Protein backbone atom coordinates (compact mmCIF):
# COMPACT_ATOMS: atom_id res chain seq x y z
CA UNK A 1 0.00 0.00 0.00
CA UNK A 2 1.37 3.38 -0.92
CA UNK A 3 -0.85 5.65 1.16
CA UNK A 4 -3.95 5.90 3.24
CA UNK A 5 -5.59 9.01 4.59
CA UNK A 6 -8.34 9.19 7.16
CA UNK A 7 -10.42 12.09 8.36
CA UNK A 8 -13.78 12.70 9.97
CA UNK A 9 -16.19 14.37 7.58
CA UNK A 10 -19.76 15.61 7.82
CA UNK A 11 -22.10 14.08 10.35
CA UNK A 12 -19.36 12.20 12.14
CA UNK A 13 -18.49 9.87 9.30
CA UNK A 14 -14.92 8.57 9.10
CA UNK A 15 -13.64 8.73 5.52
CA UNK A 16 -10.66 6.54 4.70
CA UNK A 17 -8.93 6.95 1.34
CA UNK A 18 -6.65 4.11 0.31
CA UNK A 19 -4.28 4.42 -2.65
CA UNK A 20 -1.90 1.96 -4.26
CA UNK A 21 -1.89 -1.72 -3.41
CA UNK A 22 -3.70 -3.26 -0.47
CA UNK A 23 -1.59 -6.34 0.08
CA UNK A 24 0.39 -7.66 3.01
CA UNK A 25 0.21 -7.79 6.79
CA UNK A 26 1.89 -4.39 7.22
CA UNK A 27 -0.98 -2.69 5.41
CA UNK A 28 -3.52 -4.42 7.58
CA UNK A 29 -1.83 -3.45 10.81
CA UNK A 30 -1.26 0.17 9.77
CA UNK A 31 -4.90 0.85 8.91
CA UNK A 32 -6.43 -1.16 11.75
CA UNK A 33 -4.10 0.34 14.36
CA UNK A 34 -4.96 3.83 13.16
CA UNK A 35 -8.70 3.18 13.42
CA UNK A 36 -8.41 1.59 16.87
CA UNK A 37 -6.04 4.21 18.31
CA UNK A 38 -7.05 7.44 16.61
CA UNK A 39 -10.77 7.19 15.89
CA UNK A 40 -13.04 8.06 18.83
CA UNK A 41 -15.42 5.30 19.84
CA UNK A 42 -18.47 7.48 19.13
CA UNK A 43 -17.59 7.43 15.41
CA UNK A 44 -19.63 4.48 14.18
CA UNK A 45 -19.95 5.24 10.47
CA UNK A 46 -17.19 4.88 7.89
CA UNK A 47 -16.75 5.23 4.14
CA UNK A 48 -13.68 3.65 2.55
CA UNK A 49 -12.69 5.03 -0.84
CA UNK A 50 -10.87 2.26 -2.68
CA UNK A 51 -11.11 3.79 -6.15
CA UNK A 52 -7.31 4.19 -6.27
CA UNK A 53 -6.46 0.68 -5.05
CA UNK A 54 -4.78 -1.08 -7.95
CA UNK A 55 -4.27 -4.54 -6.46
CA UNK A 56 -5.77 -6.31 -3.49
CA UNK A 57 -5.19 -9.80 -2.12
CA UNK A 58 -6.57 -11.78 0.80
CA UNK A 59 -4.76 -9.49 3.27
CA UNK A 60 -6.53 -6.51 1.74
CA UNK A 61 -9.86 -8.29 1.98
CA UNK A 62 -9.08 -9.06 5.61
CA UNK A 63 -8.54 -5.35 6.29
CA UNK A 64 -11.94 -4.50 4.84
CA UNK A 65 -13.70 -7.31 6.71
CA UNK A 66 -12.08 -6.38 10.02
CA UNK A 67 -13.01 -2.72 9.54
CA UNK A 68 -16.58 -3.69 8.69
CA UNK A 69 -16.75 -5.89 11.79
CA UNK A 70 -15.37 -3.11 13.98
CA UNK A 71 -18.03 -0.64 12.89
CA UNK A 72 -20.94 -3.10 12.87
CA UNK A 73 -19.98 -4.30 16.37
CA UNK A 74 -20.54 -0.71 17.50
CA UNK A 75 -23.98 -0.64 15.86
CA UNK A 76 -22.55 1.29 12.96
CA UNK A 77 -21.84 0.70 9.31
CA UNK A 78 -18.97 0.77 6.84
CA UNK A 79 -19.39 1.23 3.09
CA UNK A 80 -17.02 1.07 0.14
CA UNK A 81 -16.67 3.79 -2.46
CA UNK A 82 -15.98 3.08 -6.11
CA UNK A 83 -13.76 0.00 -6.18
CA UNK A 84 -11.55 -0.29 -9.25
CA UNK A 85 -12.54 -2.93 -11.80
CA UNK A 86 -9.98 -5.45 -10.53
CA UNK A 87 -11.06 -4.95 -6.90
CA UNK A 88 -14.73 -5.11 -7.88
CA UNK A 89 -14.12 -8.46 -9.60
CA UNK A 90 -12.38 -9.76 -6.47
CA UNK A 91 -15.29 -8.65 -4.29
CA UNK A 92 -17.72 -10.43 -6.63
CA UNK A 93 -15.67 -13.64 -6.85
CA UNK A 94 -15.36 -13.82 -3.06
CA UNK A 95 -19.05 -12.93 -2.66
CA UNK A 96 -18.07 -10.01 -0.42
CA UNK A 97 -20.02 -7.74 -2.74
CA UNK A 98 -23.09 -9.20 -1.00
CA UNK A 99 -21.81 -8.17 2.44
CA UNK A 100 -20.55 -4.64 1.74
CA UNK A 101 -22.63 -1.71 0.60
CA UNK A 102 -20.82 -0.30 -2.43
CA UNK A 103 -21.36 3.19 -3.86
CA UNK A 104 -20.10 5.08 -6.89
CA UNK A 105 -19.49 8.39 -5.09
CA UNK A 106 -18.70 9.85 -1.70
CA UNK A 107 -21.96 11.79 -1.77
CA UNK A 108 -24.02 8.60 -2.24
CA UNK A 109 -22.06 6.79 0.47
CA UNK A 110 -22.37 9.59 3.04
CA UNK A 111 -26.06 10.02 2.21
CA UNK A 112 -26.65 6.33 2.86
CA UNK A 113 -24.68 6.43 6.11
CA UNK A 114 -26.59 9.46 7.36
CA UNK A 115 -29.85 7.56 6.84
CA UNK A 116 -28.50 4.44 8.61
Summarize the structure.
The chain has 4 helices and 5 strands. The protein has helices at 25-38, 58-73, 85-93, 106-115, and strands at 3-9, 13-22, 45-56, 77-81, 101-103.
Account of the protein in words:
With 116 residues, this protein is of the alpha/beta class. The protein has one domain (3-115): 2-Layer Sandwich (Transcription Regulator spoIIAA), CATH 3.30.750.24. The chain contains 4 helices and 5 strands. The protein has helices at 25-38, 58-73, 85-93, 106-115; strands at residues 3-9, 13-22, 45-56, 77-81, 101-103. It has a 5-stranded mixed beta sheet, with helices on both faces. The protein starts with a strand and ends with a helix.
